[in-house]
Specification:
The complex is a heterodimer. Chain A is of the alpha/beta class. Chain A has helices at about 40-50, 70-75, 95-100, 110-115, 130-145, 160-175, 190-195, 215-220, 235-240, 265-275, 290-295; strands spanning about 1-10, 15-25, 30-35, 55-60, 80, 150-155, 180-185, 200-205, 205-210, 225-230, 245-250, 255-260, 280-285. In chain A, strand 1 and strand 2 form a beta hairpin. The longest helix of chain A is centred in the middle third of the chain and has 16 residues, at about 160-175. In chain A, about 40% of the residues are buried. Chain B is an all-alpha fold. Chain B has one domain. The longest helix of chain B is centred in the first third of the chain and has 32 residues, at about 50-80. The chains are: A alpha/beta, B mainly alpha. The interface between A and B is medium-sized, with 26 and 20 residues. Chain A: It is a peripheral membrane protein. Chain A: It is found in: Cell membrane.
Chain lengths: ~300, ~240
């Protein structure tokens, strides 16, 4: 079931066209990513979805609601974590949650939520004294306190150190497991690849492609490369005959097989049939970065 | 609403410099300057002493101007700058409620400060309570409303939370001057007193003093305050930005 539908969204700012033509659908229960470089129109797109901005063209539906017309109802269905929205410096963690819970008719138990985002031990800490990762986790908790069906998370891990980033990713996966649909805005390829079921690549206000991360990589060729040192000589013909293999190169005693599909398994199985053991086996896969480059001619980051 | 009022009140109380400047400073100035400056406690030809009504009225004005020129704009611009208001706009509660809550808290602080100043004047200087008290309350509410609307205009115009108190001071000190903080209104040259008459703060201080001393406020002063409320209120509605 589609919980979000965006059709031909367009948003013009006084000086530039932020969103030119964006369409996508989000199915209930999935993590949908919006991936693109800075300034691509990602945030404007989700702000239109959340009813914070009025689009100049196109239609948006969230759980059947029009975000502008049904603003009040939408607020109860959609929770949003905004990029760089802070809280008063001296508010304590529990006070913020208690306050935001009071905004909703049927809020979540914020004590439980506090434990879930891993801030149970920080309940009496003021916002000012929280680390970047803790602030983001509080921000996620505030977006969830109204028991939304959809949570929009905008640039959740920007500015976090790698460990904090991984902790937040785990949190996002837990939230999805609890049945909340997630729209994740990011410019991190790794984040999108790890978390998203499907994603839309956005560049210069337009959707370049929408697919699963693997599908996107495959769309642009899905080039993979398997490198190894065979324990016994193997001819090119044996490898080239395998399904999906496109080319074989040799550098000294190292063999590099490139192609698409389930390349690593195909190659290792074929080698096993010839009683050859692949030493120093390495698999190099195309990434979303490569896909973005192929689709737009530009690098993601 | 109740919870937001509670939380914001706690945040207000945690910010001790605001409280010190809006309540403690006027009270300290009332007592210390009232007792030490020669002539403050002596009867003039009308039989009134400066400390009976004029000086405490100016301290009420000082407290209010501190609130509306620095405390209120600083909170609102900081909340806007840091995205506190924007985050609220993602919830079912409108950020307009935050505005209401801030106005209520500042009004409450103004009432407390004024009550302390009235009681302090009676106790320290052995003065009479405000003689025209219904008029005093009316003048207090009208003047406070007009000045708060002015504070909202400052909050709307200030680019960020750090600039707000600076802009507030630029507004506050000239207003204190024309209201008679340094030269009493009765000693002002005519031209300056005319400026004072139309400055909202001047009529506010004068009308507080008149009602405190048991006289009726001058109609001109009430009209200027009401006009200030309408003009600043209109500007605030037009200029205020949530983000």
């Amino acid at each position: 079931m589609k919980i979000i539908e965006v059709r031909n969204l367009r948003k013009q700012y006084p000086k530039h066209l932020a969103v030119d033509d964006v369409s996508f659908e989000v199915a209930e229960g999935e993590i949908f990513g919006i991936l693109g470089p800075n300034g691509a129109g990602k945030t404007t797109t989700v702000e239109c979805v959340a009813g914070l901005r009025a689009p100049d063209g196109g239609t948006v539906r969230v759980a059947g609601l029009d975000p502008r017309r049904d603003r009040a109802q939408l607020r109860e269905v959609l929770g949003m974590q905004l990029q760089s929205a802070n809280l008063p410096e001296k508010i304590k963690v529990w006070e913020a949650l208690d306050l935001y819970a009071s905004f909703y008719p049927d809020p979540a138990d914020w004590n439980e939520l506090l434990e879930r985002v891993g801030l149970g031990h920080k309940r009496h800490t003021t916002f000012k004294k929280l680390s970047g990762g803790q602030r983001q986790r509080l921000s996620v908790a505030l977006a969830l306190v109204g028991r939304p069906r959809v949570a929009v998370l905008d640039e959740l891990t920007t500015g976090l150190d790698p460990q904090a980033r991984r902790d937040v990713w785990e949190l996002v996966e837990q939230i999805r497991a609890s049945g909340v649909t997630i729209v994740l805005v990011t410019h991190f390829m790794e984040e999108a690849e790890r978390l998203c079921d499907r994603l839309a690549l956005i560049d210069a206000g337009k959707v370049v492609a929408t697919d699963t991360p693997a599908g996107l990589i495959e769309q642009v060729g899905g080039e993979q490369r398997v490198r190894f040192r065979p324990s016994a000589p193997v001819t090119d013909d044996v490898l080239l005959a395998l399904p999906g293999v496109r080319a074989v190169e040799r550098h000294g005693d190292q063999v590099a097989v490139s192609g698409a599909g389930n390349l690593a398994a195909t190659v290792t199985l074929a080698l096993a049939r010839h009683d050859i053991v692949p030493g120093d086996l390495r698999i190099e896969q195309a990434t979303l970065d490569d896909a973005f480059l192929a689709l737009t001619g530009r690098k993601l980051s | 609403m109740k919870k937001m009022l509670l939380v914001e009140t706690k945040l207000y109380l945690r910010d001790w410099p605001s409280l010190a400047f809006s309540i403690a400073l006027p009270v300290v100035l009332l007592v210390v300057l009232g007792l030490t400056i020669p002539g403050m406690g002596e009867a003039t030809e009308t039989g009134e002493r400066f400390v009976d009504a004029q000086w405490p009225s100016l301290m009420v004005l000082l407290s209010l101007l501190t609130l509306v020129c620095s405390v209120l704009p600083a909170v609102l611009t900081t909340y806007r700058e840091q995205g506190v208001l924007r985050r609220m706009s993602t919830t079912p509660v409108s950020p307009a409620r935050m505005l209401t809550v801030q106005l209520v808290i500042n009004l409450a602080v103004a009432v407390v400060a004024t009550a302390i100043l009235v009681v302090g004047t009676m106790l320290v200087f052995d003065a009479a309570p405000p003689g025209q008290w219904p008029g005093f309350v009316l003048v207090f509410l009208l003047g406070t409303a007009a000045l708060m609307a002015m504070g909202l205009v400052i909050a709307a115009l200030a680019p960020n939370g750090k600039a707000a108190p600076g802009i507030g001071s630029l507004v506050m000190f000239p207003l204190m001057f024309v209201a008679g903080m340094w030269i009493p209104r009765q000693a002002m040259p005519d031209a300056l007193r005319t400026v004072s008459d139309y400055s909202v703060a001047g009529p506010f201080a004068q009308a507080l003093k008149d009602t405190w001393a048991g006289h009726a406020p001058q109609p001109l002063h009430l009209i200027v305050m009401a006009a200030g409320l309408v003009v600043f209120g209109g500007l605030a509605v037009r200029l205020f930005r949530w983000e």
